[in-house]
Structure formats: structure tokens, C-alpha cells
Amino acid sequence: MKLYILVSNGGDGSFSVDAALDPKVIDILRAANQRGALDYDSPGCDGDGFHYSTINVPDGSTFESLDIGEYSQLTLESVAKYIDEEDGEEEQ
Questions:
Q1: Taking the domains of the chain in order of start, what are their residue ranges?
Q2: I need a surface site. Which of 44, 45, 51, 74 has the fewest CB within 10 A?
Q3: What secondary structure does DSSP assign to 19-73, as a single string?
Q4: What confidence category does residue 21 fall into, taking pLDDT thresholds of 50, 70 and 90?
């Protein structure tokens, strides 16, 4: 199982770290980036554009078992605003 780690620009010189367990979250953000829909302060965006890293975690891991706080959790619900509204679904 993979944990996706995204560094985001806070806009004030600071950076934050977000995490996703669902690869569909990354698919949505990647498609939004390709459409030009991400800003400098979007998840996974910093001065170098959109990117992320992965680490392997034990199968069945949850945000809670990995001690990832609620403000760092990226879920399908939290990235829903990046889904392409023209056709109602994410681009592949």
C-alpha cells in the first residue's frame, strides 16, 4: 500500500505537507494540473509545479494509524472541487 506525500506552498513563504491514501486523489489532482486548474497553493504545488512522492506503508493503514492529522488528509471529498465540471468526471 502506498502513502502519497504532497508538499504545498502556503503562499507566505511557508510549506505544508499533505497525504493521500487513495490513488484516485492523485489522478484527480494530476488531471486538474494538466488542465491548468491548480494554483501555487493547491495540494502538491510549489514553486516547481505539481509533484508528489510515495512511501510504502503496511496494508490496511489509515490516516489515524499513521498519525496523520485531519488538516493534512487529502481525500476524494477534499479534492472534489478539482474534478472537471464540464463532463462531471475526472479526466484520465
A1: 2-82
A2: 51
A3: EES-HHHHHHHHHHHHTT---TTSTTEETTEE--EEEE--TT--TTTTT--GGGE
A4: very high
